[in-house]
Amino acid sequence: MEILRSDYGNAYFVTGIFTSAIYSDDCIFEDPTISFRGTELYERNLKLLVPFLEDASIELINMDKSELSQGNYIRATWKLRTYLKLPWRPLISINGSTVYELDRDFKIVKHVESWSVSAVEAIRQIFTFNSFTSRS
Description:
Blueprint: H1 2-9, H2 12-15, E1 23-31, E2 34-37, H3 39-49, E3 53-68, E4 71-84, E5 91-102, E6 108-115, H4 119-126
Parallel strand pairs: 1-6
Antiparallel strand pairs: 1-2, 3-4, 4-5, 5-6
Protein backbone atom coordinates (compact mmCIF):
# COMPACT_ATOMS: atom_id res chain seq x y z
CA MET A 1 0.00 0.00 0.00
CA GLU A 2 2.92 2.35 0.66
CA ILE A 3 4.20 1.94 -2.91
CA LEU A 4 0.75 2.85 -4.21
CA ARG A 5 0.67 5.90 -1.90
CA SER A 6 4.07 6.86 -3.30
CA ASP A 7 2.71 6.55 -6.85
CA TYR A 8 -0.08 8.96 -5.90
CA GLY A 9 2.61 11.24 -4.45
CA ASN A 10 4.20 11.16 -7.92
CA ALA A 11 0.76 11.99 -9.37
CA TYR A 12 1.02 8.91 -11.59
CA PHE A 13 -2.29 9.56 -13.39
CA VAL A 14 -0.92 12.83 -14.74
CA THR A 15 2.83 12.17 -14.91
CA GLY A 16 2.88 8.59 -16.19
CA ILE A 17 5.36 7.69 -13.42
CA PHE A 18 4.14 4.56 -11.64
CA THR A 19 5.58 1.38 -10.16
CA SER A 20 4.71 -1.25 -12.75
CA ALA A 21 6.25 -4.02 -10.58
CA ILE A 22 3.20 -3.95 -8.25
CA TYR A 23 0.91 -4.92 -11.16
CA SER A 24 0.57 -8.32 -12.79
CA ASP A 25 1.70 -8.19 -16.42
CA ASP A 26 -1.83 -8.93 -17.65
CA CYS A 27 -3.62 -6.63 -15.21
CA ILE A 28 -7.05 -5.42 -16.35
CA PHE A 29 -7.45 -1.63 -16.47
CA GLU A 30 -10.93 -0.08 -16.63
CA ASP A 31 -12.43 3.37 -16.42
CA PRO A 32 -15.85 4.60 -17.55
CA THR A 33 -14.59 5.06 -21.13
CA ILE A 34 -12.21 2.16 -21.82
CA SER A 35 -11.09 -1.31 -20.74
CA PHE A 36 -7.91 -3.15 -21.71
CA ARG A 37 -5.34 -5.62 -20.40
CA GLY A 38 -1.62 -5.21 -19.74
CA THR A 39 0.70 -2.88 -17.87
CA GLU A 40 2.69 -2.09 -21.03
CA LEU A 41 -0.44 -0.76 -22.72
CA TYR A 42 -1.37 1.20 -19.57
CA GLU A 43 2.08 2.79 -19.45
CA ARG A 44 1.89 3.64 -23.17
CA ASN A 45 -1.58 5.19 -22.75
CA LEU A 46 -0.37 7.36 -19.86
CA LYS A 47 2.67 8.52 -21.85
CA LEU A 48 0.41 9.51 -24.76
CA LEU A 49 -1.91 11.46 -22.46
CA VAL A 50 0.63 13.33 -20.30
CA PRO A 51 1.84 15.80 -22.99
CA PHE A 52 -1.73 17.14 -23.31
CA LEU A 53 -2.02 18.01 -19.59
CA GLU A 54 -1.15 21.37 -18.03
CA ASP A 55 -1.13 22.35 -14.34
CA ALA A 56 -2.23 18.80 -13.61
CA SER A 57 -2.68 17.42 -10.12
CA ILE A 58 -4.18 14.42 -8.44
CA GLU A 59 -4.98 14.58 -4.76
CA LEU A 60 -5.25 11.33 -2.82
CA ILE A 61 -8.17 11.76 -0.44
CA ASN A 62 -8.27 8.33 1.18
CA MET A 63 -6.81 4.86 0.78
CA ASP A 64 -7.83 1.72 2.62
CA LYS A 65 -7.28 -1.99 2.32
CA SER A 66 -10.05 -4.56 2.71
CA GLU A 67 -10.49 -8.28 2.53
CA LEU A 68 -13.44 -10.12 1.07
CA SER A 69 -13.99 -13.84 0.69
CA GLN A 70 -13.00 -13.39 -2.99
CA GLY A 71 -9.67 -11.71 -2.09
CA ASN A 72 -7.95 -8.52 -1.04
CA TYR A 73 -8.37 -5.09 -2.52
CA ILE A 74 -7.31 -1.50 -1.98
CA ARG A 75 -9.69 1.38 -2.59
CA ALA A 76 -8.38 4.89 -3.18
CA THR A 77 -10.47 8.02 -3.54
CA TRP A 78 -8.96 11.00 -5.32
CA LYS A 79 -9.54 14.29 -7.08
CA LEU A 80 -8.08 14.94 -10.54
CA ARG A 81 -7.71 18.47 -11.86
CA THR A 82 -5.96 19.49 -15.07
CA TYR A 83 -6.18 21.85 -17.97
CA LEU A 84 -5.82 20.37 -21.44
CA LYS A 85 -3.36 21.90 -23.88
CA LEU A 86 -6.01 22.88 -26.39
CA PRO A 87 -6.58 26.44 -27.65
CA TRP A 88 -9.59 26.95 -25.34
CA ARG A 89 -7.76 25.36 -22.37
CA PRO A 90 -10.59 23.26 -20.92
CA LEU A 91 -10.49 22.38 -17.23
CA ILE A 92 -11.03 18.74 -16.38
CA SER A 93 -12.05 18.23 -12.76
CA ILE A 94 -13.17 14.80 -11.62
CA ASN A 95 -13.59 13.19 -8.23
CA GLY A 96 -13.14 9.47 -8.45
CA SER A 97 -12.05 6.25 -6.90
CA THR A 98 -9.92 3.33 -7.97
CA VAL A 99 -10.30 -0.22 -6.73
CA TYR A 100 -7.15 -2.30 -6.99
CA GLU A 101 -7.84 -6.05 -6.79
CA LEU A 102 -4.92 -8.04 -5.42
CA ASP A 103 -3.87 -11.64 -6.03
CA ARG A 104 -2.36 -13.98 -3.40
CA ASP A 105 1.07 -12.44 -4.01
CA PHE A 106 -0.43 -8.96 -3.45
CA LYS A 107 0.09 -7.91 -7.05
CA ILE A 108 -2.63 -5.78 -8.62
CA VAL A 109 -4.64 -7.87 -11.09
CA LYS A 110 -7.45 -5.39 -11.72
CA HIS A 111 -7.44 -1.57 -11.64
CA VAL A 112 -10.99 -0.17 -11.91
CA GLU A 113 -11.73 3.56 -11.85
CA SER A 114 -15.11 5.10 -11.22
CA TRP A 115 -15.87 8.79 -11.52
CA SER A 116 -18.30 11.19 -9.86
CA VAL A 117 -19.46 12.22 -13.34
CA SER A 118 -20.59 10.11 -16.26
CA ALA A 119 -18.22 9.44 -19.15
CA VAL A 120 -20.34 11.81 -21.28
CA GLU A 121 -20.06 14.58 -18.66
CA ALA A 122 -16.28 14.04 -18.44
CA ILE A 123 -15.96 14.31 -22.23
CA ARG A 124 -18.24 17.38 -22.21
CA GLN A 125 -15.67 19.13 -19.97
CA ILE A 126 -13.23 18.95 -22.92
CA PHE A 127 -15.56 21.14 -24.95
CA THR A 128 -16.14 23.77 -22.25
CA PHE A 129 -14.48 27.09 -23.00
CA ASN A 130 -12.23 28.63 -20.32
CA SER A 131 -10.78 32.12 -20.48
CA PHE A 132 -7.06 32.20 -21.27
CA THR A 133 -6.57 34.71 -18.43
CA SER A 134 -8.06 32.51 -15.73
CA ARG A 135 -5.03 30.34 -14.98
CA SER A 136 -5.50 28.99 -11.47
